[in-house]
Write a structure and sequence with these properties.
alpha+beta, Pemi-like Protein 1, Chain: D, 2 domains, two-stranded antiparallel sheet, 4 helices
């Protein structure tokens, strides 16, 4: 029969903004490192932290997202098109011409 090893640590004080420090022995046992993400689940009066795998960030994706945010803030967003024909007509319009030059 398999039993789970239970690690008991001293009381941990909740800080001003709700922060707590996880003891290093608990972090190592759970495989939690600096910068890792955990899911918080409430089970009755208990709060359970579950380590989560998160896809690594990619420079190309981050760069494209930053460019999209910049375009959005500059109001450089095309209207919605139902098909490529609508897009082609819009590109030939004065609005589409101004958009492609900016």
């Amino acid at each position: 029969m398999h039993t789970k090893e239970k690690i008991v640590s001293p009381l941990i004080k909740v800080q001003l903004k709700g922060q707590v420090t996880l003891p290093s022995k608990l972090r190592r046992k759970a495989g939690i490192a600096i910068g890792d993400y955990v899911e918080m689940v409430q089970e009755g009066t208990r709060i359970v932290l579950i380590p989560q795998d998160v896809a690594p960030r990619h420079l190309m994706v981050d760069t494209a997202l930053q460019e999209a945010i910049k375009d959005s803030r500059a109001k450089k967003i095309t209207p919605k098109f139902e098909n490529m024909k609508e897009y082609a007509v819009w590109r030939k319009s004065s609005e589409g011409q101004k958009f492609s030059r900016s």
